[in-house]
């Protein structure tokens, strides 16, 4: 076994036994990246010397790949956009600080949809990322670089972010575990904001135990993010001990199984997952989340509204590319933004400013906020009856590059991940099987707000019941 194939737990054990050093671990990853990332395109940049220096100075540390919207002092942070070309972060995001103080080092910056808007990484202005299990297909998005790096053994583990599904859907496409923590579990300070009431950083890993270790390392209160509560972070990895599905009440939200466009193989794999839970002793209960059908509409009002405000700072004055064709201040703003942003980001800014404009605010934004409350209540009611929900993660397996041309069809990929994001609860994707063509498919578990311990236990027991899913990889 090569060192780059290790997960966090195995790497930590090897390091502590002195079987290898952090430098050797980083060197192994660098050589893997040189050998195959030309085909995959997971990384945007990799400061090899910097990573090796950190590994030398922190001999027990495990390298983690970082999505390119999380600030790491002295490194570029492009957010997958041309507009941030040449930008160098002046400070570490809190998650990066936490990583460094808990035995991890940032190593390599991975690709993403521009400003995390997308589900395929095709919206990156900086490069194409391919699915390591099928190079003609997308890795999912927006954390597609993170997922391709983890799924392709191009890193030990990675950080992604999830606003409406961007950790879970790519994890499902690339055979990794992806956890979207509850809103407020992890600090957003130093993470470039897309939709501030939804964004969360989370682990993308090779096992549930690794996700527990990495989540524990990054989570917790931060004075710089007022949404993070003061209470101590549970010892997630220790609490996984003896995880079982026996007697666990798992809800199956009926609305998630009635949608059109649900791929028959994903349906089969989800049904198999349900049967495995039952065989492992879980009690299955049908539940209803009646406002599910409004979630997409609500998300595509709230997320663009918040994005339009957050992205106002990229104007060529405060941040970002500055057009050299401007003749006055107004044209400086307009040309800089027109040249710097890609089409999807522009679409979101236009939608967002429209729904916030004075004549439409109540009709769209105000209404969406009210319906969001109803969606949240659906989850509260479900979790009064069950411990966890099981749903498909994405309606289809990884699709081909260029296959989804129309933005609305692309948006539909997040049908199953958006409602829980709006509710602020925690959710995860765990590898569950593969299609007959060998494409990985994950299943989603959802638990209540700040119920990460329960979520990770259910995922761990599910992982044990499933065994390792190993579809054929192309790299
Ligand atoms: N794909 C969704 C979008 O485009 C979600 C993205 C995300 O979670 N960052 O908005």
Q: Main β-sheet: number of strands, strand sense, barrel status?
A: 11 strands, mixed
With strands numbered from the N-terminus, the spatial order across the biggest sheet is 1-3-2-4-6-5-10-11-9-7-8
Separation, N- and C-terminal Cα atoms: 15 Å
**What is the averaged pLDDT score?**
97
SS class: alpha/beta
By DSSP (H or I, 4+ residues per run), the number of helices equals 16
* Total beta strands: 11
The third-level CATH topology of the domain at 3-244 is Amidase signature (AS) enzymes
Low-confidence stretches are none
How would you describe this protein?
By secondary structure, this protein is an alpha/beta fold. It has a domain at 3-244: Amidase signature (AS) domain (Amidase signature (AS) enzymes). The protein is built from 16 helices and 11 strands. An 11-stranded mixed beta sheet has the order 1-3-2-4-6-5-10-11-9-7-8, with helices on both faces. The longest helix has 24 residues, at 362-385. The two termini are 15 Å apart. The structure holds glutamine.
């Amino acid at each position: 076994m090569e060192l780059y194939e290790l997960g966090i737990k195995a790497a930590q054990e090897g390091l502590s036994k002195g079987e290898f050093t952090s430098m050797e671990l980083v060197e192994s990853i660098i050589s893997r990246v040189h050998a195959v990332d030309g085909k995959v395109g997971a990384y945007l940049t990799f400061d090899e010397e910097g990573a090796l220096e950190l590994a030398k100075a922190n001999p027990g540390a495990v390298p983690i790949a970082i999505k390119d919207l999380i600030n790491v002092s002295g490194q570029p942070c492009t957010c997958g956009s041309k507009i941030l070309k040449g930008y160098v972060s002046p400070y570490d995001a809190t998650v990066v600080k936490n990583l460094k103080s808990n035995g991890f080092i940032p190593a390599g910056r991975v690709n993403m949809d521009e400003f995390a808007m997308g589900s395929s990484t095709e919206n990156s202005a900086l490069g194409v990322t391919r699915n390591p299990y099928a190079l003609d297909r997308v890795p999912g998005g927006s954390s597609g670089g993170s997922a391709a790096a983890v799924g392709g053994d191009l890193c030990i583990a990675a950080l992604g972010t999830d606003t409406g599904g961007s950790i879970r859907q790519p994890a499902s496409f690339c055979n990794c575990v992806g956890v979207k923590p509850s809103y407020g579990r992890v600090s957003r300070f130093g993470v470039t904001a897309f939709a501030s009431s939804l964004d969360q950083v989370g682990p993308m890993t090779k096992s549930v135990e690794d996700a527990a270790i990495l989540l524990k390392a990054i989570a917790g209160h931060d004075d710089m993010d007022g949404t993070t509560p003061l209470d101590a972070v549970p010892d997630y990895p220790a609490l996984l001990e003896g995880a079982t599905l026996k007697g666990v009440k798992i809800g199956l939200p009926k609305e998630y199984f009635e949608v059109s466009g649900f791929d028959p193989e994903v349906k089969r794999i989800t049904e198999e997952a349900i049967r495995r839970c039952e065989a492992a002793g879980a009690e299955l209960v049908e539940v209803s989340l009646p406002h599910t059908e409004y979630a997409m509409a609500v998300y595509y009002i709230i997320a663009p509204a918040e994005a339009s405000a957050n992205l106002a700072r990229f104007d060529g004055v405060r941040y970002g590319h500055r057009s050299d064709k401007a003749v006055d201040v107004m044209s400086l703003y307009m040309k800089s933004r027109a040249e710097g942003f890609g089409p999807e980001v522009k679409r979101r800014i236009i939608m967002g400013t429209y729904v916030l404009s004075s004549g439409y605010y109540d009709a769209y934004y105000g209404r969406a906020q009210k319906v969001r409350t109803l969606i949240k209540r659906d989850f509260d009611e479900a979790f009064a009856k069950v411990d966890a929900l099981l749903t498909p993660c994405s309606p289809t397996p990884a699709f081909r590059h260029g296959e989804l041309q129309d933005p609305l069809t692309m948006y539909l990929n997040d049908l199953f991940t958006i409602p829980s994001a709006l509710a602020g609860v925690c959710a995860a994707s765990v590898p569950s099987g593969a299609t007959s063509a060998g494409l990985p498919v994950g299943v989603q578990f959802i638990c209540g707000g700040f119920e990460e311990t329960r979520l990770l236990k259910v995922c761990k027991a599910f992982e044990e019941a499933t065994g390792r899913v190993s579809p054929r990889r192309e790299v």
